[in-house]
Design a protein that fits this description.
By secondary structure, this protein is α/β, with parallel strands linked by helices. It contains eleven helices and eight strands. Strands 1-2-3-4-5-6-7-8 form an eight-stranded parallel beta barrel, surrounded by six helices. Bound molecules: cytidine-5'-monophosphate (C5P).
């Protein structure tokens, strides 16, 4: 898998999502299905989007005791997704159990990525609410090293942290980075953001872009702008 732009399809129904994807015609962007859409539609929406020829990142951010996560991942392994994820904060035992659950009988499995710290979390929240005194960059790195040691394929982090993760975990350890905004766009609730071009320079492997594309007047043009800035 190479560098790619993943569109966060945070829609409330399958119908809205499929209508949105219809606008792309023959283009088949990599699609992220998150909690809103998955909880609304269930596994059938994964199948429908896959059948249209899209790659899928199933972003359900599992975080529970190891046994529960293992069993849930075993269920998700039956879906034909390319990437899925969990919270590194669940610990290394949970991450190893997740890999076991996600691995199919034939040995294959989707890529498994760990969320380090949400890109909506800023330094003050980390310190005052999560009670983590370690600076953000070091916290993210520590979670990334733990994910790598547990056998995961990469992390979700801010593009601001992608370079540090690659330096410490190697260039093949994937960085999947939300918190991407156009230079002239709204930041919204995201706190740690970069433009697609900056994310490219920082070495992100995948950028996850939601509202800058889904809420754009011309989503296809916004997607193409992301691709131009991030890949070309
Ligand atoms: O609309 P926006 O570009 O902010 O969408 C970002 C997407 O990435 C959302 O679907 C959000 O759930 C997801 N995400 C994130 N930060 C993380 C992990 C996932 O923003 N750390």
């Amino acid at each position: 898998m190479g560098k790619d732009v993943i569109i966060a399809c945070d829609f409330s129904s399958g119908q809205k999502t499929l209508e949105f994807l219809d606008r792309f015609g023959g283009k088949k962007p990599f699609v992220k299905i998150g909690m809103e859409l998955y909880y609304a539609e269930g596994p059938s929406i994964v199948e429908k989007i896959k059948n249209r020829g899209h790659k899928i990142f199933l972003d359900l951010k599992l975080h529970d005791i190891p046994n529960t996560v293992k069993k849930a991942m075993a269920v998700l392994s039956g879906l034909d997704v390319d990437m899925t994820n969990l919270h590194a904060a669940g610990g290394s035992q949970m991450m190893r159990a997740a890999i076991e659950g996600l691995t199919r009988p034939d040995g294959t499995r989707p890529l498994l990525i760990a969320v380090t710290q949400l890109t909506s979390t800023d330094a003050a929240t980390l310190k005052n609410e999560l009670l983590i005194d370690t600076p953000m960059a070091d916290t993210v790195l520590s979670y990334a090293k733990s994910a790598m040691a547990s056998g995961l394929d990469g992390v979700v982090c801010s593009p601001l942290e992608a370079e540090g993760v690659h330096k410490n975990c190697g260039k093949n350890f994937l960085t999947v980075t939300p918190g991407v905004r156009f230079a002239d766009g709204d930041i919204g609730d995201q706190k740690r953001v970069m433009t697609p071009a900056e994310a490219k320079k920082a070495g992100s492997d995948y950028i996850v872009v939601g509202r800058p594309i889904t809420a754009a007047e011309d989503p296809v043009a916004a997607y193409e702008r992301c691709v131009r800035e991030f890949i070309d």
